[in-house]
Write a structure and sequence with these properties.
The complex is a heterodimer.
Chain A (H helix, E strand, L loop, with lengths): L1 E4 L7 E4 L5 E5 L4 E8 L2 E9 L5 E6 L5 E6 L4 E7 L2 E7 L7 E6 L5 E6 L4 E7 L4 E7 L7 E6 L5 E6 L4 E5 L23 E4 L6 E2 L10 E6 L5 E6 L3 E6 L5 E6 L5 E6 L4 E6 L5 E6 L4 E7 L13 H11 L18 E8 L7 E6 L3 E6 H7 L7
Chain B lengths: L37 H10 L2 H8 L10 H16 L3 H9 L3 H16 L5 H26 L5
Classes of the chains: A mainly beta, B mainly alpha.
Chain lengths: 381, 150
């Protein structure tokens, strides 16, 4: 587990290139900085300055080596590397509020942008006009779209939004692709069709009394695309399995809300959020239940020195407890909320390394094998 | 010129009500949850059977109705049960609840905090401590984010 502190400000968003030697991130301003890995050091090699507002989403297409960025200035740019310089191309999204998240499709022929205008823009390149064109998915979204994830078939798109629901849409663009075959989520997929919508809360498992749910912060399809996981602001994580019995299993956790989630195998997912450490959840397909797998973080080095009487009274005065811990700060690697998690090696089916960035301006790369050995009782199925 | 001489009647208008994009919750028509039965609870409290009174009080929470009278009545009943508990009995009572029960209990506790009476705060704080030990920060977050309040 290596922690690298890039900045003092939060990292708004990040994305890695194909061979994981370069990272593009936004240091909480209008630019995108690209850093290159030099052994253990990181050097800034590019600064992409074009946006007029904070950059809220970055995605780096691995095969075609293009970067798409979106920002609060209601624009998105597609950057291509020409020689040594990244050249932007403006994409008109036709939105009247900030863009919040962006994601290339698996085949990289289109990308989706979620925005505060309560719609998703699906953008594709039109050859005749040499221009990026966009189509909108509006119904039935009623609030800001916070997170997006594509299904491996390049057509289905999961969107989590502030109207407390997670939905699966079809983003089929007939100009750029063939009609998709049927999947577990449905077989008829015209553009904009809603194939799945989560209820206000989980149906089985956790919050059974219909507590209303919260903003859906992170969504993720599993590697096969048959499972969809999302985390929401009422501290729950839920998984739905596509199919005739679209069952939703959810777990109300005891932690603060989780902001981002990713599958690391078909049955396990890692999520992280305001608690500043990643957490493992295990999904049991046969029982349809989500269980807490463990806290993934550097184990605490407990100092064995005793605590003097004076310190005890001081703690009582300052913190209302006379407990032993003289640890002033957080015990986790990240010192502030984790806002994004990305899989580095192994894909979503057999992830071996993943990376988290957060509001403390730091980035941590986590190695699954060493986590498994370092923390006992951790089983990744 | 310290006084505003123009009309300020517009300030009494709630402009958000007229916003055509205003978010309205999906209506849930379930009307069976009318809150616990007051008479039954009274009986049990008199007999001293606190655990059963507690469980019955937490059944049928009026989360779906918009009628404030029903919610007030339910709240009063639950608070009566919570305040008649002995401190030592609180922990086993909380342990006997499941996840959603703990969330529901937290909701009632916070509603009870809103209108403190003579002794209620002290006992509610003890309830809060025990419920927090089981439910964690997540249960408090769920009190804050719940659309269907108790």
């Amino acid at each position: 587990m290596s922690y690298h502190s890039f900045l003092l400000e939060p990292i708004s968003c990040h994305s890695w290139n194909k061979d994981r030697t370069q990272i593009a991130l936004c240091p909480n301003n209008h630019d995108v900085h690209i850093y290159k890995k030099d052994g253990t050091k990181w050097t800034k090699i590019h600064e992409l300055k074009e946006h007029n507002g904070q950059v809220t989403g970055i995605d780096w297409a691995p095969e075609s080596n293009r970067i798409v960025t979106c920002g609060t200035d209601r624009n998105a740019y597609v950057w291509s590397l020409k020689g040594e310089v990244w050249k932007p191309t403006l994409v008109i999204l036709r939105i009247n509020r900030a863009a919040r998240c962006v994601s290339w499709s698996p085949k990289e022929n289109k990308f989706a942008v979620g925005s505060g205008s309560r719609l998703i823009s699906i953008c594709y390149f039109e050859q005749e006009n040499d221009w990026w064109v966009c189509k909108h998915i509006k119904k039935p979204i009623r609030s800001t779209v916070l997170s997006l994830d594509w299904h491996p078939n390049n057509v289905l798109l999961a969107a989590g939004s502030c109207d407390f629901k997670c939905r699966v849409f079809s983003a089929y663009i007939k100009e750029v692709e063939e009609k998709p075959g049927p999947t577990v989520w449905g077989s008829k997929m015209p553009f904009g069709e809603v194939l799945f919508e989560s209820g206000p809360s989980g149906v089985s498992g956790g919050a059974g009394d219909g507590a209303g749910g919260g903003w859906v912060h992170g969504v993720c399809f599993s590697h096969s695309g048959n499972r969809l996981a999302w985390t929401s602001h009422d501290s729950t994580v839920a998984i739905a399995e596509g199919g005739k019995t679209s069952t939703i299993s959810s777990l109300s956790s005891e932690t603060l809300p989780l902001l981002c989630v990713s599958f690391i195998t078909e049955n396990s997912l890692v999520a992280a959020g305001h608690d500043c450490y990643p957490v493992l959840f295990v999904y049991d397909g046969t029982k349809g239940s989500v269980t807490f797998g463990g806290k993934l973080d550097v184990p605490k080095q407990t100092s064995q020195r005793g605590i003097s009487a004076r310190e005890r009274f001081q703690n009582l005065d300052r913190r209302a407890t006379s407990s032993e811990t003289t640890e002033q700060g957080l015990e986790s690697l990240h010192k502030n909320s984790i806002s994004q998690i990305s899989v580095l090696e192994g894909g979503k089916s057999k992830c071996s390394t993943f990376c988290t960035t957060g509001m403390d301006g730091g980035m941590v790369t986590w190695d699954v094998k060493s986590l498994e050995s370092a923390l006992k009782d951790l089983k990744i199925v | 010129m310290a006084k505003n001489t123009l009309s300020s009647r517009f300030r009494k208008l709630d402009i958000d009500e007229f916003d055509e994009n205003k978010f309205v919750d999906d209506h849930d028509e379930a009307v069976d949850n009318q809150g616990p039965d007051g008479a039954e609870i009274d009986n049990l409290i008199r007999q001293g059977d606190m655990m059963t009174a507690f469980h019955i009080a937490l059944r049928n929470p009026p989360v779906n109705t918009k009628n404030p009278a029903i919610k007030e009545r339910a709240l009063a009943i639950v608070l009566r049960v919570l305040t008649s508990f002995k401190s030592s009995d609180i922990e086993p009572a909380v342990k006997s609840l499941d996840r959603s029960g703990v969330d529901l209990l937290m909701k009632y506790i916070y509603r009870g905090f809103k209108k403190p009476s003579d002794n209620s705060s002290a006992i509610l704080l003890q309830w809060h401590e025990k419920a927090f030990a089981v439910g964690g920060l997540g249960s408090i977050v769920r009190v804050l984010t719940a659309r269907k309040t108790v």
